Amino acid sequence: MSYGNIGKDPAYGFVAQEDIGTVDAPEPQASWYTVFPKNTLKDVCKRTSASDDAGVIYPSGPRDHRYTATASPEEFKITPEILNGAKIIFVHGCFAYKTFILERKSEYCFLFSPRDNFSALRCPYGNNVL
């Protein structure tokens, strides 16, 4: 995933965390809301906090940095249901950081389906700046 610090201040103590899971694929022409209820997402930002010994992200363009999810193959496996499109992968994560005064958090959620060549689609929930 690409990200950047589009603000004017450095982001201190930058920490990222994510949850990865699957949901059933919606029927053709059905809404994502039918298979992706809000309670699918656990509060990843509640469990994520900036850390004094973590990195600094300096002001940049919106996509100047890359982040790769940390789930291992033991934690998340690509199943036949994912490959045949019956299940959709979702990644729900949080970036936590400090400005000079406050801790801030950016929550994101994306869906990945073989129907869309595993391109990132925004989840119906879970994309907020907190």
What report would you give on this structure?
The protein has 130 residues and is mainly beta. The protein is elongated and about 45 Å long. The strands form two sheets. Strands 2, 3, 5, 6, 7 and 8 form a six-stranded antiparallel beta sheet that branches. A two-stranded antiparallel sheet has the order 1-4. The protein has one domain. The chain has one helix at 80-83, and strands at 2-3, 11-24, 55-57, 65-66, 87-98, 103-112, 120-122, 128-129. The mean pLDDT is 86. The two termini are 19 Å apart.
Order of helices and strands: EEEEHEEEE
Strand composition percent: 35-45%
Query: What fraction, in percent, of the residue positions are helical?
Result: under 10%
What structural category arises from helix and sheet content?
mainly beta
What is the mean predicted local confidence, pLDDT? 86
As for the number of domains, it is 1
Whole-angstrom Rg: 16 Å
- The counted number of beta strands is 8
Instruction: Using the alpha-carbon principal axes, give the shape.
Output: elongated
Total helical segments = 1
Distance between the termini: 19 Å
Report the biggest beta sheet as strand number plus sense, adding barrel if it closes.
6 strands, antiparallel
Q: Which spans have pLDDT < 50 for at least 5 consecutive residues?
A: none
